[in-house]
Amino acid sequence: MKLREKYSRFDRYHSEWWRVLMQGGFIALTGIVLALASAFRPDSVILLAYGFSWLPLGGMVILAMGLLECLDAYFAHHQRDFLQNLQVGVLDTVVGGMIVFNVTHEPAQLSLLIAAFLIVRGIVRTVLAYALRLPQTVSTAIGGVASVILGILVWSKWTSAEGWLLALCLSIEIAFRGWAMMMFALWVRKHRQELPDRVAGAD
Q1: Closest Cα to residue 34, out of 11, 8, 64, 75?
Q2: Which of 2, 27, 174, 186 has its CA 20 to 30 A from that of 61?
Q3: In Å, how far are 72, 143, 196 from 4, measured between CA atoms?
Q4: Helices within 14-54 (DSSP H only)
């Protein structure tokens, strides 16, 4: 029964793995493009926010993903999925909104916020992956650890962090998140035909 319950949680993805794969690929590509832009065009001005490089656009991406995660929580069939999506969705929505609407002063004023977000996001992602026994735990944990490291990097330079560095770290977090979604989608694609046989054999 435990095996049946474990795999039944992902039934809704069996016919939608391609959508998750495309969504993850788009998010990963967005993160990579923003990271490259932050590194090679650090003086760009977005939303008339001088000195913030590509950070406003990164904040908009985080905000959009947070809203989508809250929407996923609304349509979740299991309580644990609801709580997981809601927690990360609210965090992304709040932090993304704060970044977008607070790019009128100095980048250093957002350093502690972004550092705390990266560290908390990385820890929560890793803990939930193991606590909920999610598939592709390793890829999720790698992204989580990377986020924590980036958060520590930002925190260590919080008094002098420039906009391009904040944008770069946030973009790498976005790219890792998309990569983890792609790994999950490929896992579903690989096992969608095997799951019924495994569950039947376990019974």
Answers
A1: 64
A2: 186
A3: 22, 28, 9
A4: 17-40
State the DSSP H helix or E strand holding residue 141, giving kind and residue range, or none if neither.
helix 137-156
CA–CA separation, 109 and 61 (whole Å) = 20
Q: How far apart are CA 73 and CA 148, in angstroms?
A: 25
Cα-based torsion angle of the residue sequence 89, 41, 161, 63 in order, rounded to the nearest 10 degrees? -10
Counted residue by residue, the chain has a size of 203
**pLDDT tens-digit readout, 23-67:** 999 999 999 999 999 999 998 888 778 888 899 999 999 999 999
CB distance 4 to 172 below 8 Å: no
- Residue 23 burial (CB < 10 Å; 0-12/13-18/19+)? middle
As a whole number of angstroms, the distance between CA 92 and CA 22 comes to 21
Q: How far is CA 154 from CA 15, 172, 184, in A?
A: 40, 13, 29
The model carries a pTM of: 0.84
**pLDDT the model gives residue 131:** 76
Rounded CA-CA distance 103/16 in Å is 37
